[in-house]
Every structure is written in C-alpha cells, then in structure tokens.
Design a protein that fits this description.
The structure holds 2 protein chains of 2 kinds. Chain A is α/β, with parallel strands linked by helices. In chain A, about 35% of the residues lie in helices and about 15% in strands. Chain A has 11 helices and 10 strands. In chain A, strand 9 and strand 10 form a beta hairpin. The radius of gyration of chain A is 19 Å and the shape is globular. The N and C termini of chain A lie far apart (about 40 Å). By secondary structure, chain B is an alpha/beta fold. Chain B folds into 2 domains: about 210 residues, Rossmann fold (3-Layer(aba) Sandwich), CATH 3.40.50.970; about 120 residues, Rossmann fold, CATH 3.40.50. Chain B has 10 helices and 12 strands. In chain B, strand 10, helix 9 and strand 11 form a beta-alpha-beta unit. The longest helix of chain B has 30 residues. The model of chain B has no long low-confidence stretch (mean pLDDT about 95). Classes of the chains: A alpha/beta, B alpha/beta.
C-alpha cells in the first residue's frame, strides 16, 4: 500500500541535504519527477546543477541507482545502459535528467541519436534557459532578450538576440511516441507526464520549465508563482504530443506577459519604455505561437 | 567505429553467432559514452575506433578510466588531421597516453586477436579495474586479411564478467559523483597505483596465455630479438618490428652486433624491463611513429627517461608518419647514424 498525497506517492527519492539554492525550480521538480520514476529505475544525469548539488562524494541525494558521466552524453550513456539491461534480461526503467545546455546544445547530437535508435528511455530536460551551473551563460534554450552573463543587456545590444530553440517540436519530428512540456506549479501534471514517458514503449521526452533563482534574478518565494505565470501568460505552453498528435493544456484566464516578466530581473529591461518595441516583438511571437498551437490542437502535427 | 572490426562483429551478431547487443551510435563520443553506461551496468563492453574517432572520444576516455571501468577497445592506429590522412601512424593513441588506459601495441593480426582476450583478463582483475586499448597499425594490420587461429575453450582463461559494483536498483549507488579537492587526488593516486601494478599482471597473463594456448608475446610487456649480446638496439612499437627483425638478421650476417626491442606495452611503461634488456648496449635507437611537437617522439622521450642513469647513448628517429613506409633502409640508417633525426 502506497500512501498518496494529492495523487503523489509519499515516498521521497531525492534526499534532503542537497545544496540547491532556496527556491530552486529544478530541485522542486526533481521530487515529483523521481516519484514518478519510483522503484526499479536507473537515473542518468548530465553535468550541471542537478548533479553538482546532489553528488558531493561521499554524499549523495540519489536513492535511485544513478550515474553521471559527462555534460553532453546522457542520451548515449543511457543507450549503453539500456542495451546492457537487455543483455542481462532485466526490465528496469531508465530516466535521464539533463539541463538545457546538455540537451539543447552540446548533447543534441546524442539526443537525436538516441531518438533515432528508438531506445526505451525517458529523457527529462529541466529547462532553466541557461548554463546556470557554470555562471548563467546563454544556451540554445535562452529566450530572446534575456539577460545572461554572455548576452548582457548593454547600451547597444539588449540581451540574447536569437529566439530559443523549439526543442519539443524538433524532438517530436523524430516521430517518437511521447513528447511533453511540464512545470512544477502543476505537480500532478508533471508527475503524470514523466510517468507516462517512462511507461511509453520507446523514447519519450519531457521538458520541464525550471526557475533559476540566481540566474533569472527572482525572489526565492516566487518560484511557483513565476512557474504558474509562465503557463498563464502562454510564454511556456504545456502540452503533450502523443504519437504525433498535439494535446494542449488550455489557458482559461490569460494573464498579461508583463506579470511574468516583472518578477525576473533577466527581463526587467523589456518593461522600460525605451524598449517597448522589443517587448511588443516578444509579445507578438508568444501570441502567434499560442494561436498556432490552438489551431493545431487535437491534430497530428508530426 | 572502425572498418572491418565492427563490420565483422555486426555480421557475427546478425548471423546469431555472437550473443551481443550492438549500439549503432551517431559518434565516437557517444560510442565511448555508451560503453561507460553499459560497463557500469555490469556487462562486458567493447568498441573499436581510429584516429579522429579516438580524438573525439578523448573526453570520455578519462571518465572511463576515472570510473575504473574495464572497457576494452581496439584502435587501428592512424594519423590525425590536418592535413587529412587516413594512413598508419601512432599519433592517435600517443595523444591518449595520459588518459589512464592500458596500451598494448601489437605486431600481427593474431596478436591483436589474442591481446583482446588478454586485455579483458588484465582490465577486469580486481586489483586493476582500468580500461585498455589494443593498438594495431592502421592498414598494415587493420586492412589486411591474414589467417587467425581462433581460441577454443576460452572460459577458463576468461571467466564470465562479474563486477564488484554495478548500476542496480536493488543495490542503488551513485556512479560518477563530484570529487572535491579534498579527495580528488586520492582517487588519482589509486588510479596510478592500479596502472603501475598492472605491469606484473600483464606479464603473468602473457605467461598463462602461452601455457594454455601455446602462443606468447615476449614477456608480455617487451619482446626482444637478439638483444643479449647487442651493443646497438632498436626500439619500436607495432608492425615495424617485422621489418626490423629482418634488418637485424642482415646486419648480423655482416658482423653487426645489433638487436631489437619491441615495446608491446606502453602504458604502464615497462621501465625496469627496458633497463634490463638494454644493460649491455652502448647505443639505443628509438623509432617513433608520432611526434610530440616542440620536443621529440614520445617513445624516445620515455626510453631516455628510463635509461638516464645508464651510460647509453639514446637517439630518437621519427619515421612512418601518415602511412609513409618504414623501409629496411630507414631502419639501417637508424642503426648506423649517431644522431637522431626525421627519417623522411
């Protein structure tokens, strides 16, 4: 008998005592993700905050059998584990936990290879939109105009000049059975999506919106509020793509994008009057993106 | 991925002759990463690569040895770009001499085959637990076909792999944690001790192999030819030893007291064995198929280090880079000349 709170198992798999920042979105998500992983799972983590805060030898926060290899190779390491388990005749689940740098950028080739080969692995990317662990440098996931240490807001250039990479759709284009986005403000939804990803036969990908308190310049008490706003402003839509079919989580009372931006210093320059055109550009992009998702909802998109 | 080795393995697997899972990775970096994952899960793991592929693996070679995973890899030694060149030399594996992998350089296809079995036995020994590469000259060995006698009843020599630690949900452990400055150095010291300690085991394994299968390769770490009374000894790695043996015979016919020392094991470095084999020599000539830019050939540097207390004149020659043939004439020059140089 498993005790259940709000539909989530009581047993904790991510031990306390780790050194993540107060209010870390990633650490909150880890609790739910690892509950979804449950028994009989091997976890593969990439170099990054998730690994650094949790594996200071001789201590570990991982109650699962867990391995860290390097930054960009969670997908290939897990591919090796899956093949070894096949040799051993074991039916153990495999969960990857990687940051966006290791997933969108330097681990992209390895991720694509894993998807193409069709390994039975659930890949979870915690997306804090930067190489947060190494000092908040921009990544392929960083949103346009965000302030990072390598895309500082200057007199001439106002933060990152490119849009973030639409990775869930690129992953879905590999025609894998399950892709989803999730958010710790909706723990049951996050839990269910990871569980579904792990139960799916073949590769699955779940991308989790993760507030980075020092990287984004947010208040430690506002992590869940910001996470909620990312969804309610349609900035970070929540959806599933099951066998190519889009299933979008509807937003009922759409909130203004300003509400989301004003809680993060990485975006605060966008709310200044002189940068109104930049703000409008982002707003338009978010709105077009959302309309596109709405019009494709329930349909096969890849 | 390399040439005939993985192609042949793929055929064996697809014909049902070898119980094995093959992962068709998208890069060599991923190949080594997958090996780390598979080996940590508790299965015997193998890959093969060459030149640029090995260079791409570089980062994870250090992870494999640091995590003490006994992965075995065949490397067809080939040159590194630029200029791009696909032919034989030792630049690729020499660049990885500090990666914490045992390195054995072979002279024949038979030795390459036999050394894979030996390497597993060495690497998986609980006192060693290191990965190892069997280095075979590109093209000269990797792209020729020569008859190889297959081993029978190998399981006495190489029993099933039974690792001390593995990724197992029933006994969860964290692999690959952070080592802070307070403990990182201790792990590296242990790694070095394991590597140093493996030298005797490599010799023992060669003797045991010889006893069981009737074939051996020198004492396992060096392979000498007519060195006992030689005052002029040539040291080299790999297939060039075959040509050198002929040259030794020819020069001996005309009264030259010459000999050959083929270095089979480069990591760990068989320092005492070299000192012992060269103790009566006056001159040592080292042929390197790689160069450490700005100083000299890597084998030469280390041989000179090994012999620095002896009154022996050690000279280094760079030859056979990027598939340039090393001819008898080159070897004769090396024996004859007083000063090391590039043999173009």
């Amino acid at each position: 008998m498993v005790a259940v709170i709000l539909g989530l198992p009581e047993k904790e798999w991510f031990a306390s005592g780790h050194s993540a920042c107060s209010g870390c979105g990633m650490a909150i998500s880890f609790r739910h993700i690892l509950k979804a992983a449950g028994e009989n799972t091997i976890v593969v983590m990439g170099t990054g905050c998730g690994e650094v805060v949790s594996t200071a030898y001789p201590l570990t926060s991982w109650k699962h059998a867990a391995i860290h290899n390097a930054f960009e190779n969670t997908a290939s390491t897990a591919s090796g584990i899956e093949s070894a388990l096949k040799m051993l005749g074991k039916k153990t689940k495999i969960l990857i936990i990687s940051g966006d740098g290791g997933c969108f950028d330097i681990g992209f080739g390895a991720l694509s290879g894993m998807l193409e080969r069709g390994h039975n692995i659930c890949y979870v990317c915690y997306d804090n939109g930067a190489y947060a662990n190494t000092g908040v440098q921009r990544s392929g996931a960083t949103p346009k105009y965000a302030n990072t240490t390598t895309t500082p807001v200057g007199d001439l250039v106002k933060g990152k000049v490119q849009w973030g990479k639409p990775l869930p759709f690129i992953v879905a284009a590999h025609k894998i059975p399950y892709v989803a986005t999730a958010n710790p403000a909706y723990p049951l939804d996050l839990y269910n999506k990871v569980k579904k990803g792990l139960e799916t036969k073949g590769p699955a990908y779940v991308q989790v919106f993760s507030v980075c308190v020092p990287g984004w310049g947010t208040d430690t008490s506002k992590t869940i509020e910001i996470s909620k706003l990312s969804f309610e402003t349609c900035f970070y839509p929540l959806f599933e793509i099951v066998d190519g079919k889009l299933n979008l989580k509807k937003v009922n009372n759409k909130k203004p994008l300003e509400d989301f931006f004003k809680l993060q210093s990485r975006f605060k320059h966008l709310l200044k009057p002189e940068n109104k055109n930049l703000f409008e550009e982002v707003k338009e992009k978010v709105s077009v993106g959302w309309r596109e998702l709405l019009s494709n909802n329930g349909q096969k998109i890849c | 991925m390399d040439t005939h080795i993985v192609e042949h393995l793929a055929k064996l697997i697809n014909d049902g002759k070898m119980k094995c899972e093959m992962i068709h990775v998208e890069s060599e970096h991923s190949a080594m990463s997958a090996c780390v994952g598979a080996c940590a899960t508790g299965v015997r793991t193998f890959t093969a690569t060459s030149s640029q592929g090995l260079a791409l693996m570089n980062e994870i070679l250090f992870v494999a040895s640091g995590m003490r995973l006994p992965i075995v890899m065949a490397v067809a030694n080939r040159a590194l770009s630029a200029p791009i060149n696909i032919w034989a030399d030792h630049s690729d594996t020499m660049s990885e001499r500090d990666s914490g992998w045992i390195q054995i350089y072979v002279e024949s296809a038979q030795e390459a085959y036999d050394s894979i079995f030996q390497m597993y036995r060495i690497c998986e020994d609980k006192k060693v637990l290191l990965p190892g590469m069997v280095c075979l000259d590109g093209f000269t060995l990797s792209h020729v076909h020569e008859p190889v006698e297959e081993l029978q009843n190998v399981s006495d020599f190489l029993p099933d792999y039974n690792p001390l630690f593995k990724l197992d949900p029933k006994k969860p452990m964290t692999f690959g944690p952070i080592g802070y400055p307070s403990m990182y150095m201790e792990t590296k010291k242990q790694q070095n001790e394991a590597m140093m300690g493996s030298l005797e085991l490599i010799k023992e394994t060669n003797s045991l192999f010889k006893k069981k299968f009737g074939r051996g390769y020198g004492d396992g770490v060096i392979d000498t030819y007519k060195t006992k009374d030689a005052d002029n000894i040539l040291i080299c790695l790999g297939t060039v030893a075959g040509t050198a043996r002929e040259v030794v015979d020819e020069l001996r016919e005309s009264g030259g007291k010459v000999g050959l020392l083929r270095l089979r094991c480069f990591r760990p470095f068989p320092k005492e064995e070299i000192i012992n084999a060269c103790k009566n020599a006056k001159k040592i000539k080292v042929i390197d198929r790689a160069v450490s830019f700005g100083i000299a050939g890597p084998v030469f540097i280390e041989v000179r280090y090994a012999l620095f207390k002896q009154e022996i004149n050690v000279q280094g020659f760079i030859a056979g880079l990027g598939g340039r043939d090393i001819t008898k004439d080159h070897i004769k020059k090396a024996f004859k000349e007083e000063k090391g140089r590039w043999l173009l």
